[in-house]
Amino acid sequence: MGGSATVSAQPDRVAGETVPARPSPAGAPQRSADQIRRDVEARRGELAGSVEMLRRRVTELTDWRRQVRDHREELIAGAAIAGFVVGGFLALRRRRRRS
Fold first, then answer.
1. What's the DSSP call for residue 73?
2. Contact 3, 26 (CB under 8 A)
3. Domain-by-domain residue ranges, the chain?
4. pLDDT means per 10 residues in the chain (99 residues)?
5. DSSP label at residue 3
6. What secondary structure does DSSP assign to 4-55, as a single string?
7. Torsion 68-72-78-83 (CA) sign
């Protein structure tokens, strides 16, 4: 697990206090606390947007009335097939009873 750590020449500032510089992976760019905060806020905004989009999609997919509207033909075909299967099964049972 090699790799040397470098230390920033500039200390970070957090809430107005100076914090000693921390080692960072070799070649990694140094970021200030303000840059990190901006990145966190940007990610938080992206996450909020993604969660809202997901919430809308789940609502859309679980709305049975919309699903019936969007898939009317498939439902009619499925009901017709189910009717033929049940009708055929009942006809076979009657035939067996008569025999």
1. H
2. yes
3. 29-62, 72-99
4. 47 54 66 92 95 96 93 97 96 85
5. -
6. -EEE-SSPEEETTEEE---EEETTPPP--HHHHHHHHHHHHHHHHHHHHHHH
7. positive
Task: Report d(CA 53, CA 96) in Å as an integer.
Answer: 56
Amino acid (1-letter code) at residue 64 = W
CB-side neighbour CA atoms (13 Å) of 46? 6
Task: Determine the 3-state secondary structure of 78 from DSSP.
Answer: helix
Q: What is the pLDDT of residue 29?
A: 74
| pLDDT at position 5 | 46
Give how far the C-alpha of residue 45 lies from the chain's centroid of Cα atoms, to the nearest Å.
15
* 2 DSSP 8-state letter: -
pLDDT at 40: 95
Q: How many residues does the chain have?
A: 99
Structure tokens at 1: 């697990």
